[in-house]
Amino acid sequence: MIRNLTLPWWAWILMGLCLCGFVALVVITVRRNRGMKRSLFAAPYTLWMILFTVLPVLLIAYYAFTDANGAFTLDNFRNFWDSNYESNKVILEVMGEDGAAYVTRGTVNVDTLVYSLWMAFQCTLICLILGYPAALFMADRHMKLGSTLVVLFIIPMWMNFLLRTIAWMSLLEDSGLINSFLKALGFNGVQLMYNSGAVLLGMVYNFLPFMVFPIYTVLNKMDYRLSEAAADLGCNGWQTLYKVTMPLSVPGVISGITMVFMPSVTTFFIPRVLGGGNTMMFGDLIESKFLTEGNWNVGSALSLIMMVLILISLSILRKADPNGEGGGIA
Questions:
Q1: 283: how many CB neighbours lie within 10 A of its CB?
Q2: Which terminus in the chain has less CB density within 10 A, N or C?
Q3: SS3 category, 21
Q4: Considering the domain boundaries, does residue 323 fall inside one?
Q5: What is the extent of the structural domain holding 99?
Q6: From CA 193, how far away is CA 200, in angstroms rounded?
Q7: Position 330 in a domain
Q8: 101 & 119 share domain
Q9: Which of the 8 DSSP states describes residue 84?
Q10: Is 324 a domain residue?
Q11: Distances (CA, A) of 268 to 9, 224, 273, 317
Q12: Nearest in space to 264 (alpha carbons), one of 117, 110, 108, 111
């Protein structure tokens, strides 16, 4: 059951201060520069980021460190480490020291996080293995089908994410196209749905373009004369790829890894549809805390933990691309 929550008083004050500060900043800037400057047009984006990015993060932190009554507590994080924390606390309160024998630590939350990180790692690795050669062919100026491949990668992204995932059900289910084809050939049907393999397949399919396009952007901008110079100095095709192309494409690889790993580790719709409830990732766990249990405090604590882990991974990845030269999707 979803709990009916209201924003804390300081959230309303903060939003009011943001709006007042935005208006004051616009007025002061216009008067100081005696007119509009181009940089002023970034002000709406700044306001948008404060209201819909900074403020929600502050609210998540607020609920993570408070209980249902708004009092400060760390029990939400203890619930992450021990999924039986609440029930264990009740046992100890009722039975006292005699209940210590019945107290057991639940590892559901931690195991779900580890499983999600492992699935996201596999998805990122497979996307890199498949995406790098694809980006290499697409960026090859001698490849006549390069532009066609770009269009083929873009077309699925025009379709809604949910529809793309549901479409796989018609292929993988017991009466789907693949099993029907196998049975027509005289083979027994295989279980393709409702397992980790189906979830991983759906993740790779949906997130592969986010690996391909950053790498393609970097390779497409690379000066082809560098490869010609390497060939003139005696490098064959593989040596040129290893010593010239791959080092120059590292920013795109880092950007692609970031864009695939982050949504992979937090996804929740793909495991629900293709996993059929047999697999649960951290995104499903957070969603269940918010929407099913109505426990916004524990859900916020889980979200904050995931946010910290993502920031740590981003800081590690950015060391390989300190200037932020990774290619974008466009």
A1: 23
A2: C
A3: helix
A4: no
A5: 70-106
A6: 11
A7: no
A8: no
A9: T
A10: no
A11: 32, 42, 9, 24
A12: 117
Q: How confident is the model at residue 38 (pLDDT cuts 50, 70, 90)?
A: low
- The domain that holds 254 is classified in CATH as 1.10.3720.10
38 and 139 within one domain: no
Considering just the CA atoms, what is the radius of gyration of the chain in Å?
25
195 in the same domain as 112:
yes
Task: Return the structure tokens found at 176.
Answer: 């789907």
Say if residue 1's pLDDT is above 50. no
Residues 102, 116 share a domain: no
Shared domain for 57 and 184, answered yes or no, is no
**Could you tell me the pLDDT band of residue 323, with boundaries at 50, 70 and 90?**
low
Q: Which amino acid is at 146?
A: G
Q: Is the same domain home to 34 and 167? A: no
> Mind listing the pLDDT tens digit for each residue in 261-278?
988 988 888 998 888 877
CB-based contact 150:216 (threshold 8 Å): yes
Place of tokens 């999707």: 329
DSSP state, 187?
A: P
| Residues 81 and 189 reside in one and the same domain | no
CA 26 from chain centre, in angstroms, equals 35
Q: Quick one: 205 and 57 in the same domain?
A: no
- Centre a 10 Å sphere on the Cβ of residue 173 and count the other Cβ atoms it contains: 20
Query: What CA–CA distance (Å, rounded) separates 199 from 123?
Result: 10
Q: Is 72 helix (H, G, I), strand (E, B) or coil?
A: strand
Residue with tokens 């390989």: 320
Any domain includes 115: yes
Report the alpha-carbon distance of residue 324 to residue 318 in Å, rounded. 7
Cα–Cα distance measured from residue 81 to residue 90, given in angstroms and rounded to the nearest whole number: 17
Measured between alpha carbons, how far is 220 from 222 in angstroms, rounded to an integer? 6
